[in-house]
Amino acid sequence: MSHRWTFAALLAAGLALCVAAPANARNDTARGALIGGATGAVIGGAVTGSGGGAAAGALIGAGTGAAVGANRSRRARSSYFWRNGRCYVQQRNGRIVRVDRRHCR
């Protein structure tokens, strides 16, 4: 099996995983790893012209994407908090508003 077919199969599998995830699931770490891995594989394969370069690019991109996604996920939840058994969010203007409890989990 040639390197191009291997790369195409890996890319198709990654895209299938992106599509298979439910729309309301917010797993930014996994999403960042998938997007970073696919992008890294494309760039690594294009720069080196080999399957090994694509694999190295995919690994580097997946690690970087996961780190960025985890940071984004943590920042998105940072202004939600519990008080008296209820979930609240502090908005940018400083106002505190009660929100659905699924945001505080």
Return residue spans where pLDDT drops below 50 for at least 5 consecutive residues.
20-25
Q: What is the number of E strands?
A: 3
Helix content: 55-70%
Mean pLDDT: 75
Q: What is the terminal separation in angstroms?
A: 46 Å
Q: In sequence order, what are the helices and strands, one letter per element?
A: HHHEEE
Cα shape: rod-shaped
**Structural class, please?**
alpha+beta
Characterize the biggest β-sheet. 3 strands, antiparallel
Number of helices: 3
Q: Please state how the strands of the largest beta sheet are arranged side by side.
A: 1-2-3
Radius of gyration: 19 Å
Q: Approximately what portion of the residues adopt beta-strand conformation? A: 5-15%
Structure description:
With 105 residues, the chain is of the alpha+beta class. Helices cover 63% and strands 12% of the residues. It is built from 3 helices and 3 strands, in the order αααβββ. It has helices at residues 3-20, 28-48, 51-77, and strands at residues 80-83, 86-90, 96-99. A 3-stranded antiparallel sheet has the order 1-2-3, with no helix packed on it. α1 (3-20) packs antiparallel against α2 (28-48), α1 packs parallel to α3 and α2 (28-48) packs antiparallel against α3 (51-77). The protein is rod-shaped.
